[in-house]
């Protein structure tokens, strides 16, 4: 049976830490498309406290989550167990974008691993509702390994390549504003946890 929780307690933190991936859902205020994104790399999600979580947002082909958060802040994160212990956990909340040049960025990213070369921003979420569900119809799947393709591509990318990605990330597919023109690209800040230059 579904259960609602008052906070992200130790058992929920443990469940979150065991999951190899999570899903992020957002939607614009009016019309437009609902966005649902799978997120990998288990070291890109962190529980900051009993009602706050964060994840690293990596450069990719789209920028829907950032655009929707700028529009209304609504976000849902879902963890889904594919092991023998079936469970779905949803965190409903209000998210905000922390840019690499924001003072808060270093404090937030200290909760993650050594870093990823294509980090675009950190998403910080104030969690307002925590609820689980059974997940009885979710199939059993076995994790082979994390897929290194995105990190490898970002590690080889030039500043010009990231600048091109940033330019394509200025607006969502529905035309909502996303990355600002002065949004820093990874080679201008940090790559793989080491200073650039």
Automatic annotation (TrEMBL):
UniProt source species: Mycobacterium rhizamassiliense
Residue span, Pyridoxamine 5'-phosphate oxidase N-terminal domain: 8-131
Pfam families associated with the record: PNPOx_N
Ranges for region Disordered: 173-197
PANTHER family attached to this UniProt entry: PYRIDOXAMINE PHOSPHATE OXIDASE FAMILY PROTEIN (AFU_ORTHOLOGUE AFUA_6G11440) (PTHR39336:SF1)
Name of the protein described by the UniProt record: Predicted flavin-nucleotide-binding protein, pyridoxine 5'-phosphate oxidase superfamily
Source superkingdom: Bacteria
Annotated InterPro entries: Pyridox_Oxase_N (IPR011576), Split_barrel_FMN-bd (IPR012349)
Residues making up the signal peptide according to the UniProt record: none
